[in-house]
Amino acid sequence: MPATGEPYPASVLGLLASAGDRPVFEHGSRTVTGAEMLGMIGRAAAGLRAAGIGPGDGVALMLGVTPEAFAVIFAGFVVGARLAGVRPGLPEPQLRHILARDATATVTDQAAVPPYAPHPLAVADLLSASDSGHTPSLSARPHDVARLIYTSGSTGTPKACAQTYAALDAAWTARPEDWPPAIRELASRLDRYLVFGSLSSQVMIEYGILTLAAGGTLVATDRPAFPEAIVRHRASASVITVARLHKLASAQRVDPADLRGLRALMVSGSPLPATRHREALDVLGPIVFHGYGQTETGTISMATPSDPPGSVGTPPAVVDLAVRGPDGAPVPHGTDGELYVRTPGQATAYRADPVETADVFVDGWVRTRDLGHLDPAGRLHLVGRTRDVVIVNANLYYAGPIERVLASHPDVAEAYVVGRPDEGSGEAVHAFVVPARDRAPDHAALRALVTTHLGEACAPKTVTTIAEPPLSPSGKPDKRLLTELR
């Protein structure tokens, strides 16, 4: 096991060393033990060093979901490189941007890479070195950037959050003694954690490290269709989006699959409406964990199955949270305001973007630009985003409260509000609703409901019934695409 005081990823290598002959990764019919994974990381690190990759070098990762991909990611940390994961399905301009700005080499397990990818390195070649049998030496420097995590782009152009090796080392994920209560409860259910999409995803890899620390196994699937993948891989836990959670609950009502082994679904990517939350708990049982965090901060809080629907749980003691008004001053408990947070592993800046960095990273705090409040029990409730607004007759109205009123109607499962130019009022509210039943909600009744609660200016000029919202590549509802619907 790595010696105390060594830099990241010493904590993760220690988990693998402790696992020994226990399986830590399953891919198809193949299983990889902790000792085998540690050997793969050592070989990949030797391959990276032989290719001239060391501290401070930028490495783009174009990888599938395999044991080798996991090994290469942590080999990159071993040599002290700056890693940038390339999410599948990125538009070509974003892909060019990442590869041109943030990488001096591209590590890939794909048959072909874009011609503009710098210094391609094949995973198979990196792993061809012999295993020394020793824990690899660590080259990371604490204040170097360890990884660039791109935001989803759901509120604008994706930005690269720079997280240092010191921040990764300070995070509590790999240390069970530091787990907050909600994470401790979740960890007890991570026997077989289903992974898919990209191991470079912040959410996917952080739950993966948590699984290793809990003594569980990462189980990869190439076809993440639910509930089939859960049943086929005997998964006890998985990450799930709000839209996919609703589809799973609906499918279970009609044609139930055997999900007795499923113990945790970690909802990620967007707020979970209370109606959807109750539906999932009713159909699937007490297995829903609703996490709240940002790319900039990591996990901020998590609701366990025993928390009331509509909240995102109680922020743990290791997270500082302040609710502030427009003047930056704290507001009383129960009052909505903008959320500012400090977490142990938060990012320090947006790479090469000093203007956005100065706006978001303020005196050691991260300005989330989310709106919310704490209830009397200390649970956090989200109510919208500061930039998610509609300006009607020069007055600013937040979309979140309008969406909550619409979603309170029994015929509405989800509601999304956008602003569109309007000749009479500058902008007007336009709503998109997902029905809770098999019939479309009465649009006039919904407009009247909003008028009663929030006033005529907030009443939607149009209401459109949709089966589900369009999603961004990260799985979040994409309001920019909604504005294009007619």
Automatic annotation (TrEMBL):
Residues 476-486 have a biased composition (Basic and acidic residues). Residues 19-350 form the AMP-dependent synthetase/ligase domain. Residues 402-476 form the AMP-binding enzyme C-terminal domain. Residues 466-486 are annotated as: Disordered. Keywords: Ligase. One of its GO terms (molecular function) is ligase activity. It holds the Pfam family AMP-binding_C. PANTHER family: LONG-CHAIN-FATTY-ACID--COA LIGASE, NONRIBOSOMAL PEPTIDE SYNTHASE PES1 (EUROFUNG)-RELATED. This is Long-chain fatty acid--CoA ligase. The lineage of its organism: Bacteria, Bacillati, Actinomycetota, Actinomycetes, Micromonosporales.
